[in-house]
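Lab meeting, item 3. Inverse folding demo.
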């Protein structure tokens, strides 16, 4: 899979990184504009922009799209964030009272990213690397399975700390490798979120606190539940219709069926919600 390589450094003071997002400063900020597509990366005056990790979805440490800020169970959400920061190379992170990073040691960490797109929030969708880059910055490189296995994204999947989340632009060979790593993390003895995941088994949801304190779910399902519950009623009878209205577009890999609306793969029974297909079986269209 050909991807644009950009060298730079990770820098997080004043930000709120989580298990699948972190800020990155290219050595040459103009290289952001080499990313193909209709969108441009949002960056500050110095050129620092935000990354969204390709192929993974971490538990939410702070989500407030439609209401007050909420989170998923902190032990697991925080574990993914801490592993991300440690893997990148930050040895000491001090958090401020505003829950943003106040200082780090070192101040920044060199690295590189591999990208081919920008999401609707204008974050760069990337595989994150550390150490020496495999090619010159600003050039296209072929990302194969061995290269994928050296990235932060693969590491977090292999340790069981994040869920897979596939979009159409990810080539099948790389997607299949991520799925294989997911299956290894799920195999006994399971790792990380897979020891407590309720996505397919079902979770009892009687309000937002049901899914913020202890129940671990696929983050995309968590976000849709929070958005629905923020409409004002804990009654889940209307949740399938809400999912239909949200109109997520995706393919179910095992059947080859293209559909619209997560209600196609989410089942509600009273106060219990579950998905009928695992995240590895779904490939989404980017908005």
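The presenter then showed the designed sequence:
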């Amino acid at each position: 899979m050909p991807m644009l390589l950009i060298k730079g450094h990770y820098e997080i003071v004043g930000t709120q990184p989580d298990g699948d997002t972190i800020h990155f400063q290219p050595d040459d900020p103009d290289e952001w504009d080499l990313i193909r597509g209709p969108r441009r990366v949002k960056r500050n005056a110095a050129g620092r922009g935000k990354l969204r990790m390709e192929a993974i979805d971490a538990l939410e440490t702070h989500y407030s799209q439609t209401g007050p800020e909420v989170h998923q169970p902190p032990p697991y959400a925080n574990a993914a964030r801490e592993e991300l920061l440690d893997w990148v190379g930050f040895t000491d992170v001090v958090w401020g009272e505003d829950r943003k990073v106040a200082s780090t040691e070192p101040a920044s960490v060199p690295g590189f990213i591999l990208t081919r797109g920008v999401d609707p929030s204008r974050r760069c969708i990337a595989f994150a690397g550390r150490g020496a880059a495999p090619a010159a910055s600003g050039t296209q490189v072929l990302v194969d399975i061995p290269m994928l296995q050296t990235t932060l994204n693969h590491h977090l999947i292999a340790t069981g700390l994040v869920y897979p989340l596939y979009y159409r632009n990810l080539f099948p060979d790389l997607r299949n490798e991520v799925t294989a790593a997911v299956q290894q993390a799920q195999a006994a003895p399971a790792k990380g979120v897979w020891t407590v995941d309720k996505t397919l088994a079902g979770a009892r949801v009687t309000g937002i606190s049901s899914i913020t304190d202890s129940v671990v779910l696929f983050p995309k399902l968590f976000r849709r539940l929070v958005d629905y519950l923020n409409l004002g009623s804990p009654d889940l009878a209307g949740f399938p219709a809400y999912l239909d209205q949200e109109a997520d577009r995706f393919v179910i890999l095992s059947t080859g069926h293209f559909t619209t609306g997560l209600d196609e793969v989410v089942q509600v029974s009273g106060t219990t919600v579950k998905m009928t297909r695992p995240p590895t079986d779904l490939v989404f269209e980017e908005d």
